[in-house]
Structure formats: C-alpha cells, structure tokens
C-alpha cells in the first residue's frame, strides 16, 4: 500500500516501447537494455552455457595478454617468394577463406589474371585462364601463410612485401605494398597501366624503401597507429594521418639513399599522394598482433575476420587452423557516380583484420568523417564503438580515442559475446565492381554474418 502512495518509479526490462509509454506520462523510468541469450535460440543458449567455464576465461585472459603485449615493428621489405612461408614460383595467395577458382568472385579472378601477367606467366586474360585450368597454379589464403592483402588480396611470388615482426613474441606477418587509388590490381583491374605500376613498385619503390629502412632502423607501427587515432584515422578506410606520419619518418632516410633524383621524386610523390599507403603495413601489424593470441587451447577469442568476395570467414584462437564461413554480403554502399547496387561485388578483403584488432569500424569514434560518408554523425560513430565494446573482452588504453574521453579501443572479440548479445562486428570497407577489370565502385559498411559464429560455437562445444 505504501508503494501506491509514492511517486511511481519504473525499471523497464526488455521491450523499449513500455519504457517510452511510461516516460510519456511523466513518470520516472529507467530502461535496461536486455535481450534473451542467443536471441532466444534455446539450442545456442545451451551451448553458451556449456562454454561458461573457468578454463575458457583463463585461456581468454592469456590471449588478451598476448595481443595487448604485441609490438608490431616494420623491419624490412623483401620479395614474397623469399620470405612468405610456403610460397612457391607458382603460388598465388588471395584474401579470405579457402576457395576454388570456379567460385571466385570477378575482382579476385581479375586480380589473378593481372598477377599472372605481371609475373610473365601469361600475356593476357586468355592465357592466364588457360594456365589456371592446367592446374599448375596453386591458390591459398594469405591468412594461412602469415600474410594479409586488401580487397582481392593477391600476392604473387615476385611482389615486394612489408616484413613486420612482433618483437614481443617473435612471430612475423607480411603484406604487399599499396598501389593507391583508381584502377588497381586489388580491385580486380588488370590492364596495362596496372601492370606497369606494379613493375615500378617492384623495381623502384620497393628498393628505395628497403634502403631507407636500413638507414632508419625498425619502425614501431603501433606507435604510429596510436598517434593516428588522435588525428582522425580509424586505420582501415581512413589512413590520411598515418600515411603522412610514415612519410615524415621515412622522408629523410629516403633522401639519403643513393638513388637518383628521378626515382626519389617518384617515390616521394607516390607516397605523398597515396593516403592509403599505410593501410598495408597496418594490416600486417594487426596480423602479427592477432596471431600472437591464436592457437590457445580453450580460448574463444576471434583472431581473424576475412572475406574473399564470395565467402566471409572467421578463425577462433582455440580452434586452430579451421575456418568458419558464411556467404559474403554486399555492403551498404555510397556509390561513386555512374554505379549502382547492381555493380557491387559482395564483401571482399583481408582488411577486416583491422576490425579484428580493434581498428576500422570498431574505432569509428576516432574518425567520424568515415561514418559521415554513409549518412552517419560523430554521435553515431561513437555508438558503433560503444556497441563493439559489448562483444570485446578489453579496452586498450594504449590505443585511445579523444572523442571518447581517451577511452581505449575495444579489442579481443569474444565469440560467446557475439552470440549472446546478437551484436555482430561492424566493418567499414571499399566496394569492388562485381566484374573483373572495372575497379572500385564506392565505399560501404556492413556486419559480419552470424552464421560464422554459430558454426564456431558448435565446433567449440564439440571440441571442449
């Protein structure tokens, strides 16, 4: 009876409409964001309950410690076939999970044709297709060879690659060099200008940078990434600050090399105009970081998010080399003039390693300009970052966001939290034309597919 005589105060759990109706009548109310575990799916909820175990929490703690302690450092630039494990003269690495040539997307096939022409193994697309049909070319995911590549992710034997070492744990990762914007191999373009640029990168850009790196000594990539977060980058689709920081560090050493003025001028111009240049070493940095936390028994930490234009795949620390896949979806896209959704290829690229490590969409609050492209705002960007914190195990204070009162970026996705909350990893990305040879059509955002995580959950329950 006392309750009825006091001013009503309501705590609402579940359906938000009830809370809004109470507030509309002038009553004091608090809404609790709650939803049934696993979206109310009884089977998944039971599997989650089975994985609520101390040994899993301990394993995750170990994975988090290794990932946070990683010190990715750029140490060299070398030829892919000389350093990437398992690379041969007839190996082509691609982004995403394993896939047969017949199922590959248009941009992936276009990039493969370009790579075979670049290698001198084919003169044109017809010869490239014939060579592939002969069975002489072997395809494999970059991720399965300690490597990452944006979009189609193609790395062929003669390509120069960044060599990044995690000094804390000794493991290495590799990525190709960024070609810039326009018609480029990573988007499936393979015309003569694309091949010419790749050859220039092999013969001029890579040797100059390699020599400059010898003079500068190892470059702390995490330090650059931390600084760039404070300057408006999220390190996936916006690398303006990070690319310029990298150029600033390298410029004196580039100038001190023994190369001619023409070569040095070309290199400085190329790097200065390419605001995505730092994406590739950043990807290798995140790959080396995530690999440090992979292969830990019982751990449910997601160490890889990746896509090949046909399938989306994830890897989980405690499940070893196994991929868990689902069909790749088409991003919500802001199209360049002349293109429509009919032109867009499904999601593609290893660059989601940035989100896996807490950058990109997870660090949206650091770069609201990126979210603005698809109709968002700074507050929306911050909401994405807060939401991603719900599925991660830690916020890394060494990589902070000024707009969030210098709160650390969310890191170490827990597969269990994804399924429990129903919150899927948020990714921002470039969008390729579905046909080979056309290049990019726009920029977009999307979520990772839930099916990847439910498959992994079932495998985890079976194994442990």
- Residue fraction in strands: 15-25%
Radius of gyration over all CA atoms, rounded? 23 Å
- Count of helix runs: 17
The CATH superfamily of the domain at 47-66 and 294-463 turns out to be: v583 domain like
Mean pLDDT: 95
End-to-end C-alpha gap = 53 Å
What does this structure look like?
It is a single chain. The chain is α+β, with helices and mostly antiparallel strands. Among the domains are: 2-34, no CATH class; 47-66 and 294-463, v583 fold (Alpha-Beta Complex). Helices cover 39% and strands 21% of the residues. It is built from 17 helices and 18 strands. The chain has helices at 2-5, 16-24, 42-50, 54-69, 80-83, 106-118, 125-133, 192-216, 221-229, 240-255, 261-273, 279-292, 353-356, 368-372, 378-389, 415-421, 450-463; strands at 9-13, 28-32, 72-79, 91-94, 138-141, 147-148, 160-166, 172-176, 219-220, 302-308, 311-316, 324-327, 332-335, 348-349, 392-401, 407-413, 426-432, 440-447. It has a 5-stranded mixed beta sheet with strand order 6-8-7-3-9. A 4-stranded antiparallel beta sheet has the order 12-11-10-14, with helices on both faces. The chain has a 3-stranded antiparallel beta sheet with strand order 13-18-17, with no helix packed on it. Helix 8 (192-216) crosses helix 10. The chain is globular. The model has no long low-confidence stretch (mean pLDDT 95).
